[in-house]
Design a protein that fits this description.
alpha/beta, Rossmann fold, two-stranded parallel sheet, globular
């Protein structure tokens, strides 16, 4: 199958590309390569996995117009070009509460303009062995966590996330699906696991969801399709980060 992956040089896209490259003819579009989804040439393909987008709750308040242009207008070009073909696109768990911030709103609108035959994937909090700078696991790994928020998150490893995308690519499922583990862990719980028990507690920002947890029905459906996640964030944190610092 000839597949276009947008955002193929990104945090998720790079992993997905490696998993698919031996079995499919892949084409990539990425803003990191100087491309703009709003005016770049879109190649033909049998299917598209649309991962390109702009993320960041706090950053979206500083530049809401760019978030709209990239996540809504850029996605509309992809949707229009591939209407009638298999489309999987990256949404976000933030779309459950689009009124909280411009990023969440752009993702929700993106879902609303997507073709009926497409599948929107609401990603939950994605982590990896090389966590993105400033994210919770990076702060824990580098002993830079200065306080604990009251947030609780559903963490999914990027490898498991990409496996779920590949499973869904083989189906004709449409609509919206959560991709997470179906379990939510508090920042406090993970910080204490790392031995950070005396940090001050601050409330989470009103512009962010206080708790995220993937729909367990969606997770059960993925399991029935053959998806078998390999990671649990608590075990991962203990084995990969904490043991290496002792």
């Amino acid at each position: 199958m000839k597949i276009l992956i947008t955002g193929h040089k990104g945090f998720i896209g790079q992993v997905l590309w490696e998993k698919l490259k031996n079995d499919h003819d892949l084409i990539g579009l990425d803003t990191n390569a100087g491309m703009d989804m709003q005016d770049c040439e879109i190649p033909d393909a049998d299917a598209v996995i649309h991962l390109a987008g702009k993320s960041g709750v706090r950053q979206s308040f500083n530049d809401p117009g760019t978030f709209w242009n990239v996540n809504v207008n850029g996605s509309k070009r992809i949707f229009d070009h591939f209407k009638g073909k298999r489309i999987l696109y990256a949404s976000s768990s933030t779309a459950y509460e689009p009124y909280l911030n411009p990023y969440a709103n752009s993702k929700r609108v993106m879902e609303e303009i997507a073709p009926e035959n497409s599948l929107g994937m609401r990603f939950h909090t994605v982590y990896s062995n090389n966590p993105r700078e400033g994210m919770l696991l990076w702060l824990i790994q580098n002993n830079k966590l200065n306080y604990i928020t009251e947030h609780s998150r559903d963490f999914i490893h990027v490898d498991d996330l990409c496996d779920a995308i590949i499973v869904l690519l083989k189906t004709d499922a449409t609509g919206i699906v959560d991709i997470g583990m179906g379990e939510s862990y508090s920042v406090k719980e993970l910080a204490e696991l790392a031995g950070m028990k005396d940090l001050p507690i601050k409330p989470g920002m009103d512009s962010e969801r206080q708790k995220t947890q993937a729909n367990k029905r969606d997770i059960e459906i993925l399991h029935k399709m053959g998806w078998k996640p390999k990671y649990n964030v608590k075990n991962f944190l203990t084995n990969e980060f904490i043991s290496s610092t002792i």
